[in-house]
Amino acid sequence: MSDNLRHVVNRISRIAFIVTCVLVVALCVVNFTTLFLTAELRLLVIMIGVLPAVMFVFSHAAYESQSSINCMPIRSKILSLVTVCFLLLPMVLLVVRHSVFRVDVLWLAKLLSLLTLSTIAGIIIRSDSGSGTIRAFLTHLHGIMWQVWDEPEENPIRKCDIDPDKIRQDRSRIYVDKSTLVVFQKTLLCPYTDSVSAFRLIDLVDGFTNIQNLAVLDVGGGDGALSAQFLRMLVSAGSTVSEIAMIDPVDWSKEYVASLGAVGIAGDRIRYTQSGIEEYPIERQYDIVLACHSLYAPFDQYSDASIRKGLVNRVISMREEHGIAILSLASRVGRSYDFKQRALLHVYGDNILDVAGEDLTSLLTEYHNTKYERFDSWINLTEILKKYRAGDVRELESWLEYFLRVPVRGHVDRLKSLYALLQEYIVPVKALSENEIQSFSKFSCGRPLDDIVLPHKVRLFCVGPKRTSGEKPLGISNAHQ
Description:
This protein is of the alpha/beta class. It has helices at 3-32, 39-58, 74-96, 103-126, 132-147, 164-175, 178-185, 190-202, 225-236, 253-261, 296-301, 305-316, 335-348, 358-361, 382-389, 394-404, 412-422, 434-443; strands spanning 214-219, 241-248, 270-274, 286-292, 319-330, 370-380, 427-428, 452-463, 477-478. It has 2 domains: 3-150; 159-478, 3-Layer(aba) Sandwich (Rossmann fold).
């Protein structure tokens, strides 16, 4: 269902809900004053009560929404509870009590109500187990009845208005906007999750035995948070690092040196070059090539598979014959990517496929000594959302702008609608599974379980040393298999 059609359905749902509230209250008043309504009018009241639930089923968003009711203000919780009562009670009464209805309409009304109740029950049963089912159900009802009512009347951008060159220019500008990137990076746990995954995969590839005096090339190392964590784990395992070359189109030299200095790597071992991977000259090769979350921009600029393959080959060719290359990108599987796709559809009125780790899989098939895995990570939005609700919108604007790579700052209506959409995907940590809670606590250094996060998945590849010609090609293999 398109966003426009969903918006219409949601509006109809809320109108029907309001009408139902008015009629049910009127019915109670009439009965209280000993007057009575005809059976036909009673049936009409109850069937209007069924209508919002039918709209709820066909809005399709119930399959996508698992946000936490704990994120809602008290007013929204009350409205959600009232919504549930007015949706379900008329149908339940219709099924169990029928003496007031005429026989010729009774079974049709019963059938419609039973079908609706069964469908809603099926949605709840198929959603997460435990308290998450009620939370997801109530949150979705809140979303379709109240949140979307505040969305703009219509999407001002239509498919025919899309200018691919303009979109590409906007996105390329945002990629090198340091102010938005700083805000975005503060929310990430990937420096820890990516490092643990990379360290695990290094042990699985064949032939990487050199662990002393390592020369490292860091492609798009940014502020050095991820690189520092990875190198700290290497040094803790007994390795030594002799030199690091870092390239990035943005000037992160001070931040990068500070991050690596915090894990014992002196600045005189770091050589920084402000450049993109496309222009960087291949002057030598390295024991380890890191390209973690650094291929989004070049992949975005060149959608042609052959050009992308050339970029990947260029990165991997910078490793020594017995060296390794580590590459990672966000996965298309997971809540964060679902949010991104729906947000881009809302902004542009068309489906825009964003760069993801799955794009790397087909480009790495010729590198036979390769392992990969997909793992969970989280984007912690607690502080940003707290500031937004207090009236400071700047950080949420910057975060959305970089995450989606669309202009958000200065676009009030766009920010408001994207914030409403984001509510469907964020959850408190305590609503995650036990394994996820344990992982989050480990990687976040014990952050509170009330923190609000956007679940995120990453796909990471480790390309091992070149195999000898006599070995049988194995192809890309999954580390979990």
